[in-house]
Design brief:
The protein is of the alpha+beta class. The protein contains three helices and eleven strands, in the order H-E-E-H-E-E-E-E-E-H-E-E-E-E. It has helices spanning 3-36, 63-70, 135-146; strands spanning 46-49, 52-55, 75-81, 84-93, 96-104, 112-119, 124-126, 151-153, 159-162, 169-175, 178-186. The strands form two sheets. Strands 3-4-5-6-11-10-9-8 form an eight-stranded antiparallel β-sheet, covered by helices on one side. A three-stranded antiparallel β-sheet has the order 2-1-7, covered by helices on one side.
Length: 187
C-alpha cells in the first residue's frame, strides 16, 4: 500500500468515526426534545381518499404532494388577493369535498395554504374514521388520538369537536348514534 492510499484510508476512517460520534451525540438530544415538545406533529391528521392515505396536518403536505396523491383537482378558481393571488382547488366526489386555498405571493416567498374537508360518505376517511361508525367507536378513537382534554364532547352524543389550540378545527356530527358528517379546517 503506498503512502497516498494509507492517507486516504486514514481520512475515510476518521470521517466515519466523526460521523458516528455526531450521530451518537445528536440522537439523545432529539429524543428528549421530541418527548418534551408539544408540537403539532404529535396530533397528526390523515385523510384517505381514492385509495391513498396522506398526512394533512398543519403545513404538510405540500400542494404538490396532495396533487401527486389525489390527482388533478376537479375545479380550480383564481382571484386576485392584494399583490398575491388566491387559488382555490377543489376535489369533489359524492359525499366528499376537499378544498385547498393557496395564497401565491407575488414575491419569491413560499405559497401558504389552508385546507377544508367535508366528508358525508364512506368514500373517504379521516384518521381511520368513516361515516356510519358508531358514536362510541368514534369517541374512543378520538380520545386515543388526541386525549379527552383536547376534545369537546357533547353529552347528547350529537357532536365531538376539537377543543385545543394545538389542534386544527375538526368536528364529527352524529345522527341516530352514527357518524353522519366530518369536517376539518386548517388555515
Amino acid at each position: 500500500m503506498n503512502r497516498h492510499q494509507k492517507k486516504s484510508l486514514s481520512c475515510r476512517l476518521a470521517a466515519l468515526l466523526f460521523s458516528f460520534v455526531m450521530i451518537v451525540a445528536v440522537i439523545p438530544a432529539a429524543v428528549v426534545q421530541a418527548d418534551s415538545d408539544p408540537s403539532p406533529e404529535k396530533y397528526a391528521v390523515t385523510l384517505k381518499y381514492k385509495g391513498k392515505t396522506l398526512d394533512i396536518s398543519y403545513s404538510i403536505p405540500s400542494y404538490k404532494e396532495i396533487e401527486k396523491a389525489f390527482g388533478k383537482p376537479d375545479s380550480v378558481e383564481k382571484e386576485s388577493y392584494g399583490k398575491a393571488s388566491l387559488v382555490t382547488s377543489t376535489y369533489k366526489a359524492d359525499g366528499f369535498c376537499f378544498t385547498i386555498r393557496r395564497i401565491k405571493p407575488a414575491s419569491d416567498d413560499p405559497d401558504s395554504f389552508g385546507k377544508h374537508i367535508v366528508i358525508t360518505s364512506k368514500k373517504a376517511s379521516m384518521n381511520g374514521i368513516k361515516v356510519g361508525m358508531s358514536y362510541d367507536k368514534v369517541k374512543e378513537r378520538l380520545v386515543k388520538l388526541y386525549g379527552e382534554a383536547n376534545l369537546k364532547i357533547q353529552k347528547n352524543k350529537k357532536k365531538i369537536v376539537s377543543d385545543s389550540e394545538e389542534l386544527p378545527f375538526f368536528e364529527y356530527i352524529f345522527k341516530d348514534g352514527k357518524l353522519s358528517k366530518m369536517q376539518y379546517l386548517n388555515s
